C-alpha cells in the first residue's frame, strides 16, 4: 500500500513528497510558490502528511526539532479561514533567534506577531494537564513567512507549509503565573505600538493551546518533549516587518522580548 499513513490521507506518498519538495525549495530559494491545486479539497491529514515531509527534509539536512507551534488560535483568524480548530506546526533549531538579531535574508514577505511561549519541562503524554508539563512561560515573537505568493492560501495549503513558520524569539522564562487569561499584549516597532491585544485572544486562554497541541500532535504520533518550546499562538494580527527596525513584544506581567531586524 503506497497511501500515506495517518487517518484519512488520500494522496500517495510520491505526490506528498512532490508537494513538500516544492514548498521546501520555495523556502530555500526565498521564491514564492503558486498555491498547490493538488491540495484543493484535500483532508487535513494530507496536508499534515506534506508538512511532515517538508520538515523531514529539514531534519535530513541536520536540523533538530525544538518544539511545536499553534496557529490560527484567535477566533478572528479561525473565522477568516472558516475553521473551528487551530492548526499546528513544527519548530526547528535554525528557526530560533539566539542573539536578538533577526535577519530577513532568505525571507519572502515576512510578518511578525507577538505570542506567548511555554517551556516543556518533561515529555508529555495525551491527557497530561498544562500544570504537569509546562514549567515556564515567556513573551515571544514569531516571524511567519508564507511560502505562497501573496500570502494567500487555503487551510490545507498553510498546514502543508508548516503553518508559515519561519523564525521565533523567546524572551526571559518566567515562573508560570496564576492566570494567563487576560494579559495585555503589545507589539511595538521602534518604540511605537503597532498592535495591541490580549492573551484572551489565544483560544480564550493560552493554556488551551497546550491542550490542543498535545491532542493534535498525538494524531500525528508526535509528543511534546522535555526541553521543547510551544508557541501558543498570536494575540494580535501579524505585521509586515522591515530591516533596520527594532521589534518588541510585551506581555503584561511576563516582560518583553525584542529583536534587532537586519
Ligand atoms: O502562526 C500563525 O498563526 C500562522 C498560521 C498561518 C496563517 C498565516 O500565515 O497567517
Ligand atoms: Mg504564530
Structure description:
By secondary structure, this protein is of the alpha+beta class. The chain has a single domain (65-261), classed as Alpha-Beta Complex (Fumarylacetoacetate hydrolase, domain 2), CATH 3.90.850. Helices cover 24% and strands 29% of the residues. The protein has 6 helices and 12 strands. The chain has helices spanning 13-29, 44-60, 75-81, 130-133, 155-160, 207-219, and strands spanning 65-71, 87-92, 101-102, 111-120, 134-144, 165-170, 184-189, 192-198, 229-234, 239-240, 246-251, 255-261. The strands form 2 sheets. Strands 1, 2, 4, 5, 6, 9 and 10 form a 7-stranded mixed sheet that branches. Strands 3-12-11-7-8 form a 5-stranded mixed sheet, with no helix packed on it. Residues 1-6 have low confidence and may be disordered. The structure holds hexanedioic acid and magnesium ion. The site of hexanedioic acid has 10 residues, from β5 and β9.
Amino acid at each position: 500500500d503506497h497511501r500515506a499513513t495517518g487517518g484519512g490521507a488520500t494522496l500517495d506518498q510520491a505526490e506528498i513528497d512532490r508537494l513538500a519538495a516544492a514548498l521546501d525549495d520555495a523556502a530555500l530559494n526565498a521564491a514564492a510558490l503558486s498555491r498547490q491545486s493538488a491540495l484543493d479539497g484535500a483532508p487535513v491529514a494530507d496536508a499534515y502528511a506534506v508538512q511532515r515531509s517538508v520538515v523531514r527534509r529539514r531534519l535530513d539536512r541536520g536540523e533538530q526539532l525544538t518544539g511545536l507551534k499553534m496557529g490560527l488560535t484567535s477566533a478572528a483568524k479561525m473565522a477568516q479561514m472558516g475553521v473551528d480548530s487551530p492548526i499546528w506546526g513544527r519548530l526547528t533549531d535554525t528557526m530560533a533567534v539566539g542573539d536578538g538579531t533577526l535577519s530577513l535574508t532568505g525571507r519572502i514577505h515576512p510578518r511578525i506577531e507577538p505570542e506567548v511561549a511555554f517551556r516543556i519541562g518533561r515529555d508529555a503524554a495525551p491527557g497530561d494537564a498544562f500544570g504537569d508539563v509546562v514549567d515556564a512561560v515567556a513573551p515571544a515573537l514569531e516571524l511567519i513567512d508564507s511560502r505562497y505568493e501573496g500570502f494567500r492560501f487555503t487551510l490545507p495549503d498553510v498546514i502543508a507549509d508548516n503553518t508559515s513558520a519561519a523564525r521565533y524569539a523567546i524572551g526571559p522564562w518566567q515562573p508560570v503565573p496564576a492566570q494567563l487569561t487576560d494579559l495585555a499584549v503589545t507589539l511595538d516597532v521602534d518604540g511605537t505600538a503597532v498592535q495591541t491585544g490580549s492573551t484572551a485572544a489565544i483560544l480564550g486562554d493560552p493554556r488551551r493551546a497546550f491542550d490542543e497541541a498535545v491532542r493534535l500532535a498525538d494524531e500525528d504520533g508526535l509528543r511534546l518533549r522535555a526541553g521543547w518550546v510551544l508557541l501558543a499562538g498570536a494575540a494580535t494580527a501579524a505585521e509586515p516587518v522591515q530591516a533596520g527596525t527594532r521589534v518588541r513584544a510585551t506581555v503584561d506581567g511576563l516582560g518583553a522580548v525584542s529583536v534587532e531586524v537586519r
